[in-house]
Amino acid sequence: MKTIRHGKNAKQGFEKVKKLDAEQNKLVWLTPAPANNTWTIAVRQDIAEKNKLSSLADLSRYLKEGGTFKLAASAEFIERADALPAFEKPMILP
């Protein structure tokens, strides 16, 4: 694993990680939103393809049908009311 030296410039850090993710992981980073919501859920490509997972609604369907999901998360994500507890509530879609 490469050590990345960085300062505290958010834009430069974003651009560096965006470039590295594209080169090493074939991931495309989109333009950042003005809000700071850094929670994310990632699923291995083979699992996503096998179970047709491309959205949270797909993940919800998969779990309701008996699929399993392991989640690695920080204590903050698990405890914050607007993080995991909100994610576990039923989604109300328009």
From TrEMBL:
Give Gene Ontology CC terms: ATP-binding cassette (ABC) transporter complex
The protein, known as: Osmoprotectant ABC transporter binding proteinYehZ
Gene Ontology molecular functions? transmembrane transporter activity
Q: Which domain of life is it from?
A: Bacteria
Checking InterPro entries in the record gives: ABC_Gly_betaine_transp_sub-bd
What the entry lists under Pfam families is as follows:
OpuAC (PF04069)
Q: Where is the ABC-type glycine betaine transport system substrate-binding domain?
A: 14-85
